[in-house]
């Protein structure tokens, strides 16, 4: 009975509606970073596509509120427990640090090992020194700004929950006041921008969780009662109508709050747009099922669990595209067949590799996980190079070998369907790393007449991998 009760409690705390929303929103995030404002400006994105980050913020507040309620945490000591921080470090900070290291190394390769060139080019001219202390990577990619918001939420949300437990109405009001205060600080203390230093300071403030606190607060409010017909949620209807009115005027009539040309409210995500997304969240919670038996629901749930890793993957992916093209906006002039194909490819690559990264992080064996990280970043960056840039230029043979390796590994994983020995993974990872290094040398250093030497290195490492695998399987037999 005890185990049965635990199962029922876990099931009651899971919402398929949330999974569905997170899956849809991550598709929209990838869309947002591929399609330029030349197109988005004319298709009413504020009402349907730019809701992705606001919905994620609402879900963040909702999930954390639900989690604290299930855990029964009440005191600040319980809310700020080591177990809480440990989970957040493993869930968010460790994958980000891995991305930071991998992206910087890949970026150095793309910029011919010139760190200053990478720093000045990748996020120029918004990249100030101060950004390096807030979570903005040297090898920047779109969506990077949301990482500091997530990190800040780790500190703020437990205290926010404590406030909502005591005085929910006052806590929600305080969220709006704090966010308005953040916007006021930018307006009164910086105002008209006259230097890049001021841009960098504004970026730090705009990447702070306090600037988006009303979105998280609305989610926290709904974590206690998300019934759209509840008397308690009448305020949500009022806020929704105000928010909808503002968004329509903002999107279609270019309405802006400003004084002498200086914006009173900066950014697209703030207290005037969050209630609209929070209301859509309530609608989803009301009209979508809490449980789903459809086959596709498993895929939706898996994407939902992987959204953070998908976000990190698309940051790296679009960072690579930015280094190739000079911009991450691959769709700038309309949706022709080629542009639609690019969008579909981006969805497939970023979501599938994001899920793969999430699954790698579930591996208990640390050495095996590290080896898979090497495989992940080498194959992903090579595939991006081949798909979005290399196809228009000379394609080195080692790149084709890496892609063939990736296809073979995928087929082998589907056929074998059992964990490989760490030594076998090490052998093949060594072959992959060697091939990747040779590819870099061919592109940057090695002359054409020296190619046979580099291909010899690939052949030697391939032979070693085959021998290592054969020895392992012979022991098994």
Account of the protein in words:
This protein folds into 2 domains: 12-296, no CATH class; 367-477. Helices cover 72% and strands 1% of the residues. It contains 21 helices and 2 strands. The protein has a two-stranded antiparallel sheet. Strand 1 (258-259) and strand 2 form a beta hairpin. 35% of the residues are buried.
What is shown here, in short?
This protein has two domains: 12-296, no CATH class; 367-477. The chain is built from 21 helices and two strands. It has helices spanning 2-12, 16-34, 37-40, 45-48, 52-71, 76-79, 82-110, 115-122, 146-166, 168-189, 196-206, 213-224, 234-252, 274-287, 295-305, 307-325, 337-360, 366-388, 397-416, 422-444, 451-476, and strands spanning 258-259, 262-263.
Tags for this entry?
477 residues; mainly alpha; two-stranded antiparallel sheet; disordered N terminus
Helix and strand composition category? mainly alpha
Number of strands: 2
End-to-end distance, in Å?
44 Å
Strand content: under 5%
The shape, in one word, is: globular
Write the element-wise H/E pattern from the N-terminal end onward. Answer: HHHHHHHHHHHHHEEHHHHHHHH
What's the rounded overall pLDDT mean? 90
In total, how many domains does the architecture comprise?
A: 2
How are the strands of the biggest sheet laid out side by side?
1-2
Largest sheet: 2 strands, antiparallel
Helix content: over 70%
Q: In DSSP terms, counting alpha (H) and pi (I) runs of 4 or more, how many helices? A: 21
Low-confidence stretches: 1-10
User: Radius of gyration over alpha carbons?
Assistant: 24 Å
């Amino acid at each position: 009975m005890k185990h049965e009760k635990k199962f029922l409690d876990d099931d009651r705390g899971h919402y398929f509606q949330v999974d569905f929303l997170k899956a849809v929103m991550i598709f929209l995030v990838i869309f947002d970073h591929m399609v330029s404002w030349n197109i988005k400006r004319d298709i009413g994105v504020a009402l349907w596509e730019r809701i992705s980050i606001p919905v994620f913020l609402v879900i963040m507040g909702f999930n954390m509120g639900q989690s604290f309620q299930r855990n029964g945490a009440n005191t600040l000591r319980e809310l700020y427990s080591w177990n809480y921080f440990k989970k957040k470090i493993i869930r968010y900070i460790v994958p980000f640090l891995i991305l930071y290291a991998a992206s910087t190394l890949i970026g150095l390769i793309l910029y011919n090992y010139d760190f200053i060139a990478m720093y000045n080019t990748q996020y120029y001219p918004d990249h100030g020194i101060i950004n390096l202390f807030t979570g903005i990577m040297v090898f920047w990619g779109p969506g990077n700004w949301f990482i500091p918001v997530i990190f800040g939420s780790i500190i703020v949300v437990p205290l926010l929950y404590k406030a909502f437990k005591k005085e929910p109405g006052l806590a929600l009001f305080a969220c709006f006041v704090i966010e308005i205060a953040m916007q006021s600080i930018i307006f009164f203390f910086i105002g008209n921008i006259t230097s890049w230093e001021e841009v960098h300071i504004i970026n730090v403030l705009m990447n702070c969780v306090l600037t988006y606190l009303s979105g998280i607060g609305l989610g926290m409010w709904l974590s206690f009662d998300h019934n759209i017909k509840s008397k308690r949620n009448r305020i949500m209807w009022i806020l929704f109508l105000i928010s909808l009115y503002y968004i329509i005027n903002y999107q279609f009539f270019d309405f802006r709050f400003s004084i002498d040309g200086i914006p009173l409210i900066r950014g697209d995500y703030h207290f005037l747009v969050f209630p609209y997304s929070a209301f859509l969240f309530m609608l989803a919670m009301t009209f979508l099922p809490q449980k789903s038996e459809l086959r596709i629901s498993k895929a939706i749930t898996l994407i939902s669990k992987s959204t953070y890793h998908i976000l990190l993957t698309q940051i790296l992916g679009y960072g690579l595209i930015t280094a190739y093209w000079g911009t991450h906006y691959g769709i700038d002039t309309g949706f022709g067949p080629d542009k639609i194909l690019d969008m579909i490819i981006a969805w497939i690559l970023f979501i599938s590799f994001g899920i793969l990264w999430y699954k790698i992080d579930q591996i208990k064996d640390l050495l095996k996980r590290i080896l898979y990280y090497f495989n992940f970043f080498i194959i992903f960056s090579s595939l991006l190079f081949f798909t979005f840039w290399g196809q228009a230029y000379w394609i080195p043979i080692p790149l084709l070998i890496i892609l063939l390796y990736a296809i073979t590994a995928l087929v082998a994983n589907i056929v074998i369907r059992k964990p490989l020995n760490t030594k076998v993974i090490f052998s093949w990872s060594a072959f992959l790393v060697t091939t990747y290094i040779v590819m870099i040398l061919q592109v940057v250093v090695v002359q054409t007449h020296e190619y046979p030497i580099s291909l010899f290195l690939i052949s030697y490492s391939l032979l070693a991998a085959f021998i290592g695998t054969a020895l392992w399987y012979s022991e098994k037999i």
